[in-house]
Amino acid sequence: MAKTKEIGPVYQLKITLKGHKPAIWRRFLVPGHFTLARLHRVLQDVMGWMDCHLHCFAVGKKRYSFPYPDSDWGESGDRDSRRVRLEQVATQEKVKFLYDYDFGDGWEHEILVEKILPPDPMLKHPVCLKGKGACPPEDVGGVWGYSDFLAAISDPKHKEHDDYLEWVGGEFDPNAFDLEDTNAALRMIK
Question: How much is the pTM?
Answer without folding.
Answer: 0.92
